[in-house]
Design goal:
The complex is a heterodimer of chains A (about 90) and B (about 375). Chain A is mostly helical. Chain A is built from four helices and no strands. The longest helix of chain A is centred in the N-terminal third of the chain and has 16 residues. In chain B, strands 1-9-6-2 form a four-stranded mixed β-sheet, sandwiched between helices. Chain B has a three-stranded antiparallel β-sheet with strand order 3-11-10. In chain B, α7 runs parallel beside α17 and α11 crosses α12. The chains are: A mainly alpha (about 90), B alpha+beta (about 375).
Chain lengths: ~90, ~375
Amino acid sequence: MSKTSPSLNEILPFVLDKVAQRTKTDRSTLTPDTLLANVGVDSLAAVLICGHLEDKFGLELEPAVMFQCKTAQEVATVIHNLLSDS
Amino acid sequence: MQAFDKHYDSNERMIIVRDVEEARLVLGSQNFIVPDLGSYLAKLEAATDESFTFTKLFINVSPFFLEGARHSELRALAMQFFEPKNISLWDEFLQHTIMQILHNMQGKKELDLVSEIAMPVFLDIAQPMLGLKPTEPEFFFHKAMKLQQLVEPMQSLKRIKQFESDLARLVNGLEPRHKQLNSISHVHTLPSFMTMMAEKTMMDEHTLNAFTITMFAAIAPLAQTAVNMLAYIYTHHDGIAPNEDEFHGAFDIYLAKATAPKYIHRTALVDHYVGDKSVTAGKTVLIDMQALAGDAIPGMACPHRMPFGLGQHFCVGSALSKKVLKILVPLFIKQYPRLKLGQAQRNDANLIAHEFLSFCVTPE
């Protein structure tokens, strides 16, 4: 049985969970289009969130992606594309 | 656009400075500090189950990551070895060793300047001068060189954990310090860096090892610059070397063009303007060293280039670097007045230093 990479719908909730956890933001207030800068994603949070994403999805992810991407949707898309390419 | 520009340009928490006057402002101001990696590691430890004992040990003896009294103390200690007066005691050693490096290249039909020049700078010059004797030489060489990448802003947790693992092995992987015997003159012995620091400080073995390793990592730019300089000279002179007088006359230009560090990294302490750019507190400022070298050409004065940085963190190894380059390059161009340039491979993965993985030439 071939292993398929997770879908965007599987990746996005995980990203939002970790953004909420590491910025201590109420998860219910976050949407895919919430601006990460507005919920306090600083360089420390970026490293920690990317650490979770790396462990979950088995890839290498530069924390800078949390600033190059404006929203969780964009981060999830980057991860999805990386997993699809590998 | 360079690889690191693409990496950092789109990051809103960073700005890249390419103007000389703006660079001077940043480097000369106490409102811009070196990355506080120590505090950052403490926060990472508090937020995770990770421990960064050896990385913190390393940071705490690296002037490159420190400010204030601790920085001044370590810098003053390091300068006791790296000051021009002490470095001049090593003149005979440097002359002999560099001549030997060049002698070893004679007769070879093809040369890779990375293995023929850069590696001997580490193994035959840096290691003896610092008093380093690794128990795992190959591991030490490859991993110690990578430590320069600790200055990269915003590294992943995975990479920081790898640094921790490597540092533990590096710090524990040195044979007990020994005096450096000046192999030219057996009459007297020159104290290595490690021996000098053992005599002048109360550092324990691990701390002393870490302090010495940080100096070794800091010499990576010298080895890289040496290759860069030769690559620049021969590339821009169609494979024909300038004569020695021409070289010395253009040395400052060559140095500015060849300097290995891609950028100098600072963090804004307070809200500030750099030129017309608003820099908020906490923002990362990267000074593009190649941009500072600009369009200068040999024969032009360039008093405002700063290949060794500026201010309190001016390169500790500048005297040694200039001495090695001013001995090595003239001897090399005398031995090889004409070279056919071959394949060259840059290390694009190194975001903080211009580094060749290989630079092949054929003597004509």
